[in-house]
Structures are given as structure tokens and as C-alpha cells.
Design brief:
The chain is α+β, with helices and mostly antiparallel strands. It has one domain: Cytidine Deaminase, domain 2. It is globular. The structure holds zinc ion. InterPro entries: APOBEC/CMP_deaminase_Zn-bd, CMP_dCMP_dom, Cyt/Deoxycyt_deaminase, Cytidine_deaminase-like.
Length: 146
């Protein structure tokens, strides 16, 4: 795997970030098990909760093309220091990683050129455990008055 190539792909789409509110741009690129790279940038809405992180947009970009086995995710931003994925994105990644019981390499690079190379397992210790089924989750949200 060429990490520089993945970072370059993330940097190219950072320019396309749609961020009228924050002006804070993030680019991401995912490498799939088939060796393909899919990019994503962050997108914002005037309704803040409708915004989507670059990492999840990159994953969704891959899903649109039928790719759901992820090897690595690269993240770049306007920050001087490397920016790691947020908890929401880590949860999202975990849902794909656990399907194959595989870790995902995570690479973050800042404008300074500083790079953090870590992994999903290293960053995300929580979330629904791997053996959780959709039925378990549905039942956990069912509220019963006492
Ligand atoms: Zn995120």
C-alpha cells in the first residue's frame, strides 16, 4: 500500500469541501481490499446536523461503487497538526471492519507534514461489540415504562 498516494488523494478533494459555515476543510481517502481509492470531503448544511465528515463521505463514495472492505483511511485538513477521525466516523468504520474482523489503518497528516499512523482498533475501544446483531440494537432502543 502506498500511503503517500492515499494522502495525495485526500489532499486533492480537500479543495472541494463544501463548508460555508466553518470554512474548515477536511479531505479523506479510503483504500479498499480491491486496491481502489475513493475520496470524500466534508460537507455542511445551513442545518448543522446535516453536515457529513470527509471520512464518512469517502466511505459512502466507496459504498456507492460496491466497495465495503476497507484497508486504510487517510485524513487531511487545514490544521497544522494531524486531525484524527471523530467518534462518529470511528463508529461507522467499525461497523464495516467488524464484518470481516479486520482492523483499518488510519493515517492523518497535518499541513506541517507531521503524520500519525494508527488504527481503528487503537483509537476506538467502544461502540457496539462485534457480536451485536441488528436485532440486539433494535431491542436496546425499545423503551418500556417501569
Ligand atoms: Zn467524523
Amino acid at each position: 500500500m502506498n500511503i503517500d498516494e492515499l494522502i495525495s488523494a485526500a489532499l486533492r478533494v480537500l479543495e472541494n469541501a463544501s463548508v460555508p459555515l466553518s470554512r474548515f476543510r477536511v479531505g479523506a481517502a479510503v483504500l479498499t481490499a480491491n486496491g481502489k481509492i475513493f475520496e470524500g470531503c466534508n460537507t455542511e448544511s445551513l442545518i448543522p446536523v446535516l453536515g457529513v465528515c470527509a471520512e464518512r463521505n469517502a466511505i459512502n463514495h466507496a459504498l456507492i461503487h460496491g466497495e465495503s472492505r476497507f484497508i486504510a483511511v487517510a485524513v487531511v485538513s487545514d490544521l497544522h497538526l494531524p486531525l484524527l477521525p471523530c467518534g462518529t466516523c470511528l463508529q461507522y468504520m467499525q461497523e464495516f471492519a467488524r464484518q470481516e474482523d479486520r482492523d483499518i489503518l488510519i493515517i492523518a497528516e497535518g499541513r506541517s507534514g507531521d503524520r500519525i499512523v494508527t488504527s481503528l482498533d487503537e483509537l476506538f475501544k467502544g461502540g457496539f461489540p462485534p457480536e451485536t446483531s441488528v436485532k440486539d440494537i433494535q431491542e436496546s432502543f425499545r423503551w418500556t415504562p417501569e
